[in-house]
């Protein structure tokens, strides 16, 4: 397990968001991005997982393209799971790369990508 502080981890998440191409950053609407140590029991139940040790991130909400405009709504939620990422990497650089890939993957879901499209976004 790589050891970095929560503050350092959150800083890399912020940098990952800042490094998005402007055409995506400018269209990030009504989405909140959080860092959590691990998924909650409710999150695991929602996605039908018993164990979240391999879950690096989770998008909860409705893809932008599928939203109807009924007025103010709660924001969609992207959660990046710190413990899973730290447990699956052996270097700081690996952690940084995984955070960037995970943020891009989950933001792709926010824009409506299926799992295959989101995986591709995480590779860029």
Automatic annotation (TrEMBL):
<dbReference type="InterPro" id="IPR038555">
    <property type="entry name" value="Zincin_1_sf"/>
</dbReference>
<dbReference type="InterPro" id="IPR010428">
    <property type="entry name" value="Zincin_1"/>
</dbReference>
<protein>
    <recommendedName>
        <fullName>Metallopeptidase family protein</fullName>
    </recommendedName>
</protein>
<dbReference type="Pfam" id="PF06262">
    <property type="entry name" value="Zincin_1"/>
</dbReference>
């Amino acid at each position: 397990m790589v050891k970095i502080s929560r503050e350092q981890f959150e800083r890399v998440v912020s940098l990952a968001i800042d490094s998005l191409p402007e055409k995506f950053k400018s269209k990030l609407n009504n989405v909140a991005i959080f860092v959590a140590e691990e998924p909650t029991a409710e999150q695991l139940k929602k996605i039908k997982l018993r164990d979240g040790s391999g879950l690096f991130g989770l998008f909860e909400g409705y893809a932008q393209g599928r939203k109807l405009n009924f007025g103010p709504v709660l924001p969609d939620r992207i959660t990046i799971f710190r413990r899973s990422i730290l447990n699956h990497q052996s270097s700081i650089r690996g952690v940084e790369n995984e955070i960037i890939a995970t943020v891009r993957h989950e933001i792709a879901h926010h824009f409506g990508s299926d799992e295959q499209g989101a995986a591709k976004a995480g590779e860029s």
